[in-house]
Design a protein that fits this description.
- The complex is a heterodimer of chains A (406) and B (473).
- Chain A is α/β, with parallel strands linked by helices.
- In chain A, strands 3-2-4-7-1-8-11-10-9 form a 9-stranded mixed β-sheet, with helices on both faces. Chain A has a two-stranded antiparallel sheet with strand order 5-6.
- In chain A, β10 and β11 form a beta hairpin.
- With 473 residues, chain B is an alpha+beta fold.
- Chain B folds into 2 domains: 328 residues, Peroxisomal Thiolase, Chain A, domain 1 (3-Layer(aba) Sandwich), CATH 3.40.47; 123 residues, OB fold (Dihydrolipoamide Acetyltransferase, E2P).
- Chain B contains 13 helices and 22 strands.
- In chain B, a hairpin with a 4-residue loop joins β19 and β20.
- The two termini of chain B are 33 Å apart.
- The chains are: A alpha/beta (406), B alpha+beta (473).
- At the A-B interface, α4, α5 and β5 of A face β18, β19, β20, β21 and β22 of B.
């Protein structure tokens, strides 16, 4: 078994602003993200040999045809992938594997979601098994917030935090994400918030309040990809990135039914991290990774994801957060983009959007200069997960500078 | 010797103060409080509660039949007794029957049960009565009514109260009625009903019993009988030559309300909870006539007393509804804002396939590694053994709350919806919703038990499933 490390490069990327695009449909979002990526790579759709398209909400589209139609692709294969909120990572992974297999030379990985036509603030689609009277409909078993809140309650209890202490810790995470998002022109929520605002906000699912939750919105992201040896053909000055590792883990899904599941770690994330660190040859992720985007659909999700990625000890998040370690100028910037929390979360687009953040950071092309990370940035980790505590699919992509001499 | 071998009862946790009803309508609505079924309860779920209370600590497989009496069935066409039978995990090779249309239904079932045991076609028959009658807002019934259920097991061994005799009176008298499609009952002038109905018909049946059994009314230790309200109830006692102060079992109008079909049997259970061997108890129901029974309490009563939640423990365990609006909400008395959340659906083939889970709350125990798991799997989630499980009943287990959340935006009538991860005593974990809870008192580590409830409506069905609640009493 070979590692995918450095076999595949991303040579062009695009990403729409995330938000409530009342005036744009799925095709508009796809066209915007893909044309930005084409222009960035200096290619056109005629050059693309195969595509991977990720989206979750089957109320909007089915199959890969929507991409072929939007871009007028020339009868090429379009593979529709869906792995809940890990969908974006899955699209990139599918494209990377096909390139590594030398089945194609130039492909595109696209993720999009059009969620705001549903008339409802949560995830609009009914859930798998929706005919089941008990385990089907999300309202019955809990939507995302009710389910992640189970982890927050247990996190507080496990580490001896009073609800006030726990909520304060989580509030600081959201304040940090908004501080980053406020300086990101493509972010959905561009307002700074205070700890007091977070703590006084309405409860959505105790113990999580309004500002502990990310917004659900519309957006698309796209990556033009080729094998690393061909990358200079598109970017002669070498400002492309390579995939260091790409992993997906589907948990068996019954964590919430097993008494040995503790609700304070993400097993799927731990297992996936092990895979990707091995692929990328990472021994000490906290030291080696320069920038991290984690799946922070809720504040508690960021806390537990960082711990489960082995970036800080279990139960050690509070110390990190109090020290500002995850802030832009901290030891280990987490969600410098604003994260799902502030940048937004159109499910299928998020995985590609996280990589887009790294791509711009590595190129020193971040739109708002104050958000540009200083110094030598070599490695970034993008983490996404779909499902609920005890029942996740996790996707992780590690990208970085091309190897020396390439 | 044939008679009652066990009893059980159920009173929903919520109570509404009559002061709050009076305040709402700007009038006097009497004193005390009435019981109110929670939004996830109906006559069927309360019937399950009473049945399981009656069978507490007993072998459920001995039950040879279940008769369910109610005038507020969840379905007009579709039997409730068969669902109660399934939820209570009774044998499926037994007759089940709904007795509806009359407040006298409980004693109709009692008569059928006694006859079955006497004839030898059954040894133990469960008779359950339950009602949650919806009263029109601002009607007299609104303050008078209450919700509740009672159950008795009829058999011929370990009888705690023998049936000494009965008298039956069928009458075409009409007082209260409800046509198909009517939401609320209609009623004739109260003076007519009181004078010609309550004060004559039930006393007439009781007097018939006195005569048939050659009984001096003074020999009755306690009388448990239906009445519409406290004042009429007392007048009925006098019409039967009973002393309301010493001979009448307290009818609980001030703490419970008129629970319809379930009222007389609930009063009977309250009487049995305090009875002594040798006591003589009169039971009388009313509605389209009247039935009167004489019971004699035996020494075996000691084996049941204190081992049921019955009436007293259920009455003592309560949560007050904070205001009339909450009552309107949980009893669905208004037209509401339409939600934008997609409505849920349900599928009868799925419910049928998963009936062991949905109705009976069965999980499975792996015969290879011993771990308990639900819902069912083909491959053990611990040791990966395939198809090597034995079924295990979860509905009678208690557990400890491992973690929880309180969702303010879930589809649920009484928000927040309390999602609960429960570690079951004896093994296994149950992910569920907590009902009948005081949100201020929920904490990780609290003890909970299972209760059969309506999950949510979907596909025009009542979707029943098990929830958890703080251990009630």
């Amino acid at each position: 078994m070979e590692s995918i490390k450095d076999k595949v490069a991303i040579v062009g990327m695009g990403c729409t602003a995330f938000g409530e695009h009342w005036d744009k449909d799925a095709v508009d979002l796809i066209v915007e993200a893909c044309y930005e990526a084409f222009e960035d790579a200096g290619v056109s759709q005629k050059d693309i040999q195969a595509a991977w398209l990720g989206y979750v909400n089957s109320d909007i589209a089915m199959t890969g045809i929507i991409l072929a139609g939007a871009l007028q692709l020339d009868y090429i294969p379009v593979t529709h992938v869906e792995n809940a909120c890990g969908t974006g990572a899955e699209a990139v992974r599918g494209a990377a594997m096909a390139l590594a297999a030398k089945a194609y030379d130039l492909v595109i990985a696209v993720g999009f979601e059009k969620m705001k036509d549903a008339g409802f603030g949560g995830i609009p689609q009914a859930f798998p098994g929706k005919w089941h009277p008990v385990y089907g409909a999300a309202p019955e078993i809990g939507g995302g917030v009710g389910r992640y809140a189970l982890a927050a309650t247990k996190y507080f209890a496990t580490y001896g935090l009073t609800p006030e202490e726990g909520k304060l810790m989580l509030a600081k995470v959201s304040v940090k994400s908004h501080e980053n998002g406020a300086r990101n022109p493509k972010a959905a929520l561009r307002n700074r918030i205070t700890v007091e605002q977070v703590l006084n906000a309405p409860i959505i699912a105790w113990p999580l309040g309004l500002f502990d939750c990310c917004g659900i919105n519309d957006g698309a992201s796209a990556a033009v990809m080729c094998r690393t040896e061909d990358a200079r053909h598109f970017r002669p000055n070498g400002d492309y990135i390579t995939i260091k590792a790409s992993g997906i883990v589907c948990g068996p899904g019954w964590g919430k039914e097993r008494p040995d599941y503790d609700f304070v770690h993400w097993e799927e994330t731990e297992r996936c991290a092990k895979q990707v660190y091995e692929m990328a040859g990472i021994k000490n992720p906290r030291k080696e990774l320069n920038v991290i985007e984690v799946h922070d659909c809720f504040s508690i999700a960021e806390v537990i994801a960082v711990e489960s990625l082995g970036l800080c000890p279990k139960g050690g998040a509070k110390k990190d957060i109090d020290a500002g370690a995850w802030e832009q100028n901290g030891e280990m910037p987490v969600n410098i983009s604003g994260g799902l929390k502030a940048f937004g979360h159109p499910a299928g687009a998020s995985g590609g959007r996280e990589i887009y953040e790294f791509y711009k950071q590595f190129q020193h092309k971040v739109e708002e200069p104050s958000r540009q990370l200083k110094g030598d940035i070599k490695l970034g980790l993008a983490h996404n997960q779909g499902g609920h505590p005890g029942n996740f699919v996790c996707g992780i992509t590690i990208v970085g500078e091309p190897p020396a001499g390439k | 010797m044939i008679g009652i071998t066990s009893y059980g009862a159920y009173v929903p946790i919520y109570r509404l103060s009559r002061k709050d009803i009076g305040f709402m309508w700007g009038k006097g609505a009497g004193s005390g409080e009435r019981s109110v079924a929670n939004a996830d309860e109906d006559s069927l779920t309360m019937g399950v509660e009473a049945t399981l209370d009656c069978l507490r600590g007993m072998d459920r497989s001995i039950v040879d039949g279940l008769y369910f009496a109610t005038v507020s069935p969840p379905y007009i066409e579709k039997q409730s007794a068969s669902i109660i039978r399934a939820a209570a995990d009774l044998r499926e090779d037994i007759p089940t029957m709904d007795i509806s249309h009359s407040l006298r239904g409980f004693t109709c079932g009692l008569r059928a049960a006694l006859d079955a045991v006497r004839a030898g076609s059954a040894r133990n028959v469960m008779v359950v009565a339950s009602d949650s009658r919806l009263a029109a807002p601002n009607s007299t019934f609104e303050a008078d009514f209450g919700d509740g259920a009672a159950a008795v097991l009829i058999g011929d061994t370990n009888v705690i109260a023998t049936i000494e005799g009965s008298y039956h009176l069928s009458s075409e008298f009409i007082d209260v009625w409800r046509k198909p499609g009517d939401r609320y009952m209609q009623v004739w002038e109260d003076r007519f009903i009181r004078e010609e109905g309550y004060l004559k018909i039930l006393p007439q049946a009781v007097k018939g019993l006195y005569k048939k059994l050659n009984l001096d009314p003074r020999a009755i230790t306690r009388a448990a009988f239906y009445g519409p309200d406290a004042r009429t109830h007392a007048a009925m006692a006098r019409a039967m030559k009973l002393d309301p102060k010493t001979q009448v079992q307290e009818p609980m109008f001030g703490v419970l309300g008129n629970t319809g079909t379930a009222l007389a049997p609930m009063i009977l259970v309250a009487a049995l909870e305090q009875a002594k061997p040798g006591d003589t108890i009169l039971l009388a129901t009313y509605g389209d006539g009247a039935d009167a029974y004489l019971l004699k309490v035996t020494e075996a009563i000691a084996g049941i007393q204190g081992k049921r939640r019955g009436i007293k423990k259920h009455l003592d365990s309560k949560l007050m509804l904070p205001n009339y609006g909450k009552y309107v909400q949980i009893r669905d008395l208004m037209e509401w804002e339409k939600g934008t959340i997609p409505s849920r659906r349900s599928s009868l083939p799925v419910i049928w396939r998963d009936r062991e889970l949905v109705w009976k709350l069965y999980g499975q125990k792996c015969k290879s590694c011993g771990n308990i798991q639900l819902p069912k799997h083909r491959v053990c989630m611990y040791c990966r053994a395939k198809d090597n499980f034995e079924p295990i009943r979860i509905s009678d287990k208690t557990g400890t709350l491992f973690t929880y959340s309180m969702d303010e935006r879930a589809q649920e009538i009484v928000l927040p919806k309390v999602f609960s991860v429960v570690d079951l005593d004896g093994g296994g974990r149950f992910y569920s919703v907590m009902t009948d809870r005081d949100t201020a008192k929920i904490h990780v580590g609290m003890k909970v038990e299972m209760t059969f409830r309506i999950q949510l409506e979907g596909s025009e069905l009542h979707n029943y499933f098990w929830r958890v609640r703080p251990i009630r009493c």
